[in-house]
Design brief:
Blueprint lengths: L24 H24 L6 H10 L2 H16 L3 H22 L2 H11 L7 H16 L6 H31 L2 E3 L10 H13 L6 E3 L3 H10 L3 H12 L11 H17 L5 H6 L7 H32 L8 H16 L3 H4 L5 H16 L1 E5 L11 E7 L2 E9 L11 E6 L2 E3 L2 E3 L2 E5 L15 H18 L20 H7 L5 H7 L11 H10 L4 H19 L3 H4 L5 H9 L18 H4 L9 H19 L4 H12 L7 H9 L6 H7 L8
Parallel strand pairs: 5-9
Antiparallel strand pairs: 1-2, 3-4, 4-5, 6-9, 7-8
Length: 684
């Protein structure tokens, strides 16, 4: 082992954060290969143990194995999402099959499985968290082919390695397509309707790329969304929207069409080998929802309760267009533009009016203050903590006198960062000999950066995004479990969005907004009338928004709820998507565009057969927040109950049991429908 490779020793940095400046690209693969060797030795020690299999010498020993491999893998794949390069992508492409093959080696090891199975059948008297770990370990072996015959195991290995490569390639293609497109404008007239800060950023990008007399717009969200909402030029909106919807749907090295079909077919085949009707059946067995029928019924129920209102909302926009003398058909590239104008007219709600109150630094401070009032957390900036980019900020997170976590925050788009927003960790929380090992948690966003003339000002939806990801971060930071694999966000996927989505609710409350929504120039606190407008506008086109999200979930479930024989007959993702969404679409079809080929959540983000979980968790969060509304949004005892019942517990108990400990009963969709303004309209 090379002594220069920082992965081979304890990170000699503040709080053992990865020493990003010392890690070179050639360190990764060497450390992964060494990590596999070390983990293999640890696994062999478990298998060679002469004592009868027990929870301690088998299950806990497995939990503790592979620490080097875990350390290097988390660093590699986190940076491959947040700060990648061509070289790093190639390293990830090489590392992925190595890691998948090694995982197969463990879960398909018959002798190791015999020990796990022996402990599982012992019926030892175990604490609840220990029992949960035992069940999770046993199921992971069974669900990864431990009980298969040799021929089936060999095919299972081939499929999992192929899938890991295809999913990685999918994400790389979407990132490349996003980065490769530019809408270059040369006339000032083409900027009509656009907010000044967007124009300034477009000019700054043009200057940066040595085209000072032009303006450049991209498919990154801080550029794409405000352009679609504000540009007065319909042709340019159409051009940008079609470019957005053609990502991964054009011939060339970044085409995702065949790749998506291969992923669907391989997932269906893997499920069949394991004895499941479909990939959805396989996935949902380990979810709160339990099976595809329950998810379908859940989605159909919400669809029924929102579709009529959504159609009315689309008709309302069409009627508004008529009043403006617009006689062309409402197309997808028109929706955001005219819906935004109608929203401004109905509620006097204008993001450009609100944005001065949402300076990024103030919103960050507001997130911290909210966490302080709820959970007595404080965030101390520490510039001695290493980060992977100069823009990333590092904080110590304290609860009273106890250090709880290290928090890294990365806010702005870069060419090496994938689109969207997410939370991740460089080290999970666990306990060693009773001592709590603090987690290293990160959130990654893509907000518009400051320019020389304008600070970074957020739209209200972006404020919600920051609160959302911070809710995930709280789940990781406040984790207090014995085992890392049950810690923080290591919960069932249809439960993981509860902490993030409930945290969004505070954005709408005046008591919270007044903590941070101060005009960046005058320091004036956001006026009450603006807060009222935010609340009134909250249900604006909520049925349409629900329909849109339901369509994603239905597409996901439909693609993965086919058996292998059915998937073998799939020859066109374009045709298949149209068949699935035909009855749901509220707009005319746009030829030569496709959503599936850029649906990163399900084809590279781990949400396959799980996109419904956003709506599932909304039912939970709407019901849970009503408890805060009843007691007070900063009611300390309620916050402590939510923390102790949900945030600290991770995956140590069944999610519904945890939820009922907090709320006292299972939720219904009533609170969600009330919040969305749909309950009354659908009861007539």
């Amino acid at each position: 082992m090379s002594p220069q490779n920082p992965f081979y020793r304890l990170f000699e940095t503040p709080f053992e954060i990865p020493p990003f400046n010392l890690i070179k690209n050639d360190h990764y693969l060497a450390a992964i290969k060494q990590g596999i060797i070390q983990a293999r030795i640890e696994i062999n020690e478990i298998k060679k143990c002469l004592d009868p299999p027990s929870f301690e010498n088998t299950i806990e020993a497995l939990e503790d194995s592979g620490s080097l491999l875990d350390k290097v893998s988390k660093t590699l794949f986190n940076l491959n999402s947040a700060e990648t390069s061509d070289d790093l992508q190639k390293i990830a492409q090489t590392a992925t099959p190595l890691l998948t093959s090694f995982n197969n080696e463990i879960t398909l090891d018959k002798k190791l499985f015999e020990r796990v199975k022996f402990v599982y059948n012992l019926n030892e008297s175990l604490a609840e968290e220990e029992r949960t770990l035992l069940e999770k370990t046993y199921k992971s072996f069974v669900r990864n082919g431990a009980g298969l015959d040799q021929k089936s195991q060999n095919r299972f290995k081939e499929i999992t390695v192929a899938l890991s490569n295809l999913e990685l390639k999918f994400g790389e293609n979407v990132l490349a397509e996003t980065n490769n497109y530019e809408l270059v404008l040369e006339k000032e007239d083409d900027l009509s309707g656009l907010p000044q800060d967007l124009i300034d950023r477009a000019k700054a990008l043009a200057i940066k790329t040595q085209r000072p007399k032009k303006w450049i717009f991209t498919l990154q969200a801080p550029s794409f969304i405000p352009f679609m909402e504000n540009s007065d030029h319909r042709g340019l909106r159409q051009q940008l929207f079609i470019a957005h919807m053609q990502k991964g749907f054009k011939k060339g090295e970044n085409d995702n069409r065949d790749l998506v079909l291969n992923i669907i077919k391989l997932r269906a085949e893997m499920a069949e080998i394991l004895g499941y009707d479909s990939y959805s059946s396989y996935v949902l067995e380990e979810r709160m929802a339990e099976n595809p029928k329950r998810v379908k019924d859940f989605l159909d129920d919400l669809l029924f309760k929102s579709k009529k209102k959504a159609i009315q909302e689309v008709d309302e926009v069409k009627a508004y267009m008529s009043t403006q003398g617009i006689d062309h058909e409402l197309e997808r590239w028109d929706w955001a533009y005219y819906a935004e104008k109608l929203r401004k007219k109905k509620f006097d709600f204008d993001d450009e009016l609100l944005k001065p109150y949402f300076k990024l630094e103030n919103v960050i401070n507001g997130v911290f203050k909210t966490a302080e009032k709820l959970f007595r957390l404080t965030f101390r900036f520490n510039d001695q903590i290493p980060t992977y980019h100069d823009e990333v900020k590092a904080y110590e997170v304290w609860e009273d006198q106890e250090l709880k976590a290290i928090f890294l925050a990365d806010y702005f788009p870069r060419s090496g960062k994938r689109p969207g927003a997410w939370m991740t960790s460089y080290r999970g929380q666990k306990k060693i000999n009773g001592q709590r090992i603090i987690p290293q948690v990160s959130i990654v966003c893509n907000f518009a950066p400051s320019t020389e003339s304008h600070p970074s000002l957020l739209k209200f939806d972006e404020v919600k995004t920051l609160f959302h990801e911070f809710g995930h971060a709280l789940h990781g930071m406040l984790a207090d479990t014995k085992y890392e694999s049950l810690s923080g966000t290591s919960v069932l996927w249809d439960f993981v969005e509860l902490p993030s989505q409930i945290f969004e609710n505070w954005c709408y409350e005046s008591e919270c907004l007044r903590l941070f929504a101060h005009h960046h120039e005058t320091k004036e606190v956001i006026p009450s009338e603006y807060i009222d407008r935010i609340k009134l506008a909250a249900t604006f086109h909520e049925a349409y928004a629900m329909m849109r999200q339901l369509s994603f979930a239905i597409l996901d479930l439909s693609l993965h709820n086919k058996n292998y024989a059915d998937t073998e007959n799939i020859d066109s993702i374009d045709r298949l998507e149209k068949e699935i969404l035909g009855a749901i679409n509220l707009f005319p079809d746009i030829p030569d565009t496709n959503f599936s080929v850029q649906f990163s959540h399900i084809f590279s983000g781990g949400y396959a057969s799980g996109y419904y979980s956003y709506k599932w968790a909304e039912v939970l969060d709407a019901d849970a927040f009503e408890c805060f509304k009843e007691k007070g949004i900063f009611h300390f005892k309620t916050a402590q109950s939510f923390k102790n019942c949900i945030l600290t517990q991770g995956g140590t108990q069944k999610p519904m049991d945890l939820y009922k400990k907090f709320r006292g009963a299972e939720p219904t969709s009533a609170a969600l429908l009330r919040r969305a303004g749909l309950l009354v309209s659908n009861s007539n």
